[in-house]
Amino acid sequence: MRCLKRAIAREAFHLLTNPPTPPRTDDLRQQRQQRGLTLTQAAHHLGTHPPLISRLERGLHHDTTLTNNYRQWLNTHPPLTT
């Protein structure tokens, strides 16, 4: 039992001192706007609220799963040609 506690403590310490880096989100807003999509459309498709998508795009909210789903959804829409 003591070995298990030590292993958990080592893992927790490692995660606290070396947190994983969140995925990039600084390009999501530009990609969405290039495709002519609104925050509401993105939020509706991803099953969330527009303010959360806005916070994600501005880097104020970190959610790896949502970011990956958002990026994948954006990649299925071709950019608008002008």
TrEMBL record:
Listed CDD domains: HTH_XRE (cd00093)
Chain ranges of the HTH cro/C1-type domain: 28-59
Coiled-coil region: none
Region: Disordered, residue numbers: 14-36
Signal peptide: none
Cross-referenced Gene3D superfamilies: lambda repressor-like DNA-binding domains
Pfam families xrefs: HTH_31 (PF13560)
The protein's name: XRE family transcriptional regulator
Originating species: Actinomyces ruminis
